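Retro notes, structure queue

What went well: the backlog is down to a handful. What didn't: a couple of records were mislabeled last round, so from now on we paste the full input next to the output in the thread. Example, using Holliday junction resolvase from Roseicella frigidaeris:
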Amino acid sequence: MQQWALRLRDGGITSGTMTFRPTRFEGGGMRFLRFRGWLAELATLSGGVARIVFEEVRAHAGTDAAHIYGGFLGTLTAWCEEHNVPYEGVPVGTIKRYATGKGNADKAKMVAAIQARGFAPADDNEADAIALLLWATDPTGGRA
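Corresponding output:
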């Protein structure tokens, strides 16, 4: 499941989670085709994408997770290059430190930190996406 958050042109924020898992009768590449289609749809419905910032994961639960992450990363960066959209990966610890003050904050602390900022994330994944969006759109670059 992939989490996302988007700042709209009017300054509002929308967020959620998406799944791109292939069905039983599809090949593994379908998840990446769905992801690519979703990026195009998001760009169309939102009136264009100015920048994409994503969670840079450096440790994975296993080989399959690493391969899937690599596929999503390759699909995302190729799409961004094709559409001249700047992109940036941000380490998980940076996002957690920005939201909670601790780079190793647990899921509950991340959810609580985002709730304290007035959001109602459905789960820790959505909280992470909102935190990343807030970091990326912070005038200080999240570095103050």
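Agreed that this is the format going forward. Reviewer comment attached to the example: Residues 2-137 form a domain with the Nucleotidyltransferase; domain 5 fold (CATH 3.30.420.10).
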